[in-house]
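User: Here's a structure from my thesis project, written as structure tokens. My advisor, Dr. K., wants to see whether a designed sequence matches the one we expressed. Can you design one independently, without my sequence as a hint?
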């Protein structure tokens, strides 16, 4: 069994200003680590990320710190034990009309432990709300690629959000903390 670890790096109706470094750093510090057995559905060597297929065939993107782990050792359909920080919803705005789904990714360099630097992806999407779990603060969005489950930051008021809403959202993608081949 191969075990690889990566530094932990990671996820309101928003104001107009971009979510900055300080807000992202604060959100990353509060991210929960989830353990799951998954299959690799796709690999993106350019961003050192992979799409994982989890329970009930749900797809989600997971970033991996390239300084610690190179995803090119993975193969599509590999079974992995994965520990990752959930994608974190930083902001969300309801759109007046149904927007065309879109996705824009940028990379943020955030100092992590032991002198390493993490590179989580900040993602902006126009998507549709498909599920809201207010008790656990989870919002599921259907974007241009697939559904994404996001843990909402504490300052995001979920009460005004409804299933079927078209939204513009910004989140930090999920980040692998440890990978082990089954």
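Assistant: Designed independently from the structure alone:
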């Amino acid at each position: 069994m191969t075990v690889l670890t990566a530094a932990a790096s990671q996820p309101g109706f928003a104001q107009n200003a971009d979510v900055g470094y300080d807000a992202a750093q604060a959100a990353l510090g509060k991210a929960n680590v989830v353990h799951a057995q998954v299959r690799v559905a796709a690999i993106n060597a350019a961003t050192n990320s992979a799409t994982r297929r989890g329970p009930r065939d749900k797809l989600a993107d997971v970033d991996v710190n390239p300084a610690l782990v190179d995803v090119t050792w993975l193969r599509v359909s590999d079974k992995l034990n994965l520990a990752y920080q959930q994608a974190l919803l930083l902001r969300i705005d309801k759109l007046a009309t149904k927007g065309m789904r879109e996705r824009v990714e940028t990379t943020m360099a955030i100092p992590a432990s032991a002198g390493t630097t993490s590179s989580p992806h900040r993602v902006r999407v126009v998507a549709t709300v498909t599920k809201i779990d207010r008790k656990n603060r989870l919002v599921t969005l259907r974007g241009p690629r697939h559904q994404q489950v996001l843990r909402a930051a504490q300052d995001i008021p979920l009460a005004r959000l409804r299933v079927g809403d078209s939204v513009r959202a910004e989140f930090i993608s999920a980040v692998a903390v440890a990978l082990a081949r089954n």
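When you compare it with your expressed construct, this may help: Residues 3-181 form one domain.
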